[in-house]
Amino acid sequence: MSELVRVAILGTGQTAGPIPSSDTPADELVAKLALDASRDRERELLLRAGGAFVMRRAGVIAERWPDAEAIAEAPLEVRRRASAALGDMLRSMLLGEFGEILWEALSGMDRAGLRLPEELLPLALDQRGLPTRELLLGVLGERGRFLAREDGREAWAWASSGALAGAVPDDADRRWEEGTAIERERLFQLLRRTDPARARHWLAATFKSEKPEQRKRFIDALLPELGSEDAPFLETATRDRSQSVRVAAARVLWCLPQSDTARAVRAQAEACLNRSPTGELLVTLPAEPFGEGLETLGVLETPPAGVGPRQFWLAQLLSALPPERVSEHLGLDAAQVVAAAKAHDLAQALLEGLSSALLRFGGEAWAAPLWDAWVEREGARSFLEPELLARLTERLPRDALEARLLACVRDLAHLEVFAAVPAPWPESVTHALLARFAQRTPGLAPLVHLAASRIPLSALPAELSFPRPPDTPRGSIDAAFEHLTLVIDFRRRLQKEVSP
Amino acid sequence: MRQRVAQLTAAEVTAMAPDAAAAAAGRRLGKAAPWRGLGKSGRAYFGECLGSALYQTQISTLDFATKCTCPSRKFPCKHALGLLYLAADESDAFQPVTDGGEPEWVLGWLEKREAAEQRKQARANAEEKPVDRAAQEKRAERRHDNVIAGIEQLDVWLFDRVRSGLGRLVNEPPSLFEDQARRLVDAQAPGLASRVRSLAARVGVGETASERVLGELGTLALLTHAYRRLDALPEGLRHDVRRLVGFTFTSSDVIAHGDFVVDEWVVASSTLIDEGHFRLQRSYLSGVESARTALLLQGAGSAAHFDDLLVPGTAFRARLAFYPSARPERALIAERLGPTVAGRAPPHVTTIGGALDAFSHALARDPWLRRLLFVLDARIARRRERGGDSRVFAIDSERNAVPLRGREHDVLLAVSGGRPIALAGQWNGFELEPLVAYADGRAVSLTGEEAAA
Which residues of chain A lie closer than 8 angstroms to B211, CB-CB? Predict the structure, then answer.
């Protein structure tokens, strides 16, 4: 700090003596004004400071960027940049407008070999949802990955590993040791697909030093390509210091039928479920108190609010039993088991267990009866599996789904299930819906909104309009129709832009 | 009458939107489906949009002024933007009608606008009538006396600040600056008032706050000193000092001054300063042949449009009239001589050394210069600092670097990707405020406004 500034900060009233120099030629210019040293101290100080300020601004020279400090360059792009018009639409979607069809835009761009315009990359990297991020990985381009890497912020790390989408990189070992959490997770998944044993060895070497949440995620990541050679590692993990890791490891072991854990848990589950000579289900709830053995088998003790503990344990045990084993054990087919479960006092717990088992082990014959059972239970929520109905819907054979949706439209019943049906909805269902919409049936507005982003464009007429009959007051359905036509138009423009 | 504007582009419509949300909403309505009664004449585009009610929306083709019956406080509203997008993208969607054949509600608006334009012309003509020179001189004298009294009072205020010490400023209430600024407004010196107001924001900001504040107070003292010696100054500088104090030029003054440059002008940057009730657009234009830089300022009320659409990355041939100055930069469009074309970049880029030299020369002619347009050929890189913070720099081919103002430069870093780009920004003597990045034949606005593709 110069003496002149120091005097200005303290105040000329607090300091005596002549005004200090500004150390610039401004002083000489001020001297020519022949100010009165006793009366014009403040003026002299200000003029010197003003002149010096101008001179210093004029004399600014650039910093020298150190030769040793490299300026990283993004690799050249392989993909074409999205057009300006598509960029406009993408900006709207990334900001939330038409957000429900962002997936459609990103998938279309990926197919068409397009990438996001550079100016949208920060907005894209800020996206939070996992499914959206998965889709974005395909269209970030080299620039997006470069930006995430160079920036280094944790919230963008998910994108820096996008380069791992192809083959295992040469420096995989280094990346595994030094990479960010998300990069390591993706690398692990990638290696697991090509060299499961090496991936397991990687994990075993670092497992103890991982955070509990990360240990659990890596355990879950063993499921694809799971083999009996993974069992010893998983058995060790069932003795982990973290409960969530212990439970996760045990539940992965459920999928290895020869493992001790799988054998034990299946035996316990089968002990809970029997059939009377008349075909009724005889259910034995697990005994209280909760035994340590149950937790070793991957069963959690504490239920969510509003759920009885024994029912909670029962549902978890049943979820460890592959559906075909249930059929064999009871001597009933899928539809019969589900029918018996629905009729039972413990229907919720039974359906929970069977559904969760279906999601874990598969079993095509079970999807339709279980889906029907949950739809009949209108509004019942699963305490075991999030988004259960949507996930069951994905398991439904296409024709079974189509028939059920058509029935819903025909009877105007259970329309809420459409929320669980991913796009694109079957064409026949779309036609049925449009016919229903044209009738302006009360209560359809939410479904019209939903349909806007999920009905396939190929099933729609060129001109989509829902005229209001004369003398009919404007209602919520009219606002929904406007939304529908706007979204459809937006999607059509989008489709045009992403056409190869 | 002003010249009729050429066909609008979608990028220009986006540039007219008050914010990104309005532009997105306008985009949604920029197609024929939600409209009925779409029509166009030589004077207007119009249509009715069915929202929560039926809104009547219209655009004048003269200057793309808009009117809509919706209650939105945004201007232009989403309906007007939608109609503008539709006019830009699908002009065939409008049924042609003859001038005068528009619906009643459009005719009424057009007639009102025509009447207003005539009144304006009449006022302009009236201004051209011989003035009462004696009265005018008396008014000028009175204002000069007021300003002199104002700057004497300002000097006392400045001296009080350094006498009591700048260290005390952080504890002073904002009214210290605001009250002084008001006194300067009363003294008919609004330029000085604005400088005093801007000082308030500098107090206590940054490591060198005291030095900056002292420097600003010092240049203010230089200005009051210069105004007292106005007659001794060269003509150009005299105009600058008067302008800085708050004297203004009318368009006819500028035209009469006669400093015209005909060139193809590329809009290098355009920044909107929104004060709520008033919006100011600062646009820098670069002359292709003359290599001159022109600063165009346009003001408009919150619900009014700017006279000229100036979108970065566009260019047009025009005759600009420069304001009298020791360093003529501020200008107005005297006459447009050609249509606006998109896909252009500023024609003259420079190194950082060259730009800093230009800034030194500019300061030598105008010591009160606050900022200068730099168009750099530079790469953008981030440097990590101790404590985890980082700063972003523009670096030229000679590895000279200048710091960028602020911390958020994600879009700029994305556009550059570590490779050379043309960067238009404002240099304030300490930092560069990035405005527009030019790369791959595109202009990307860095200030939140849209640029032409």
Answer: 1-2, 5
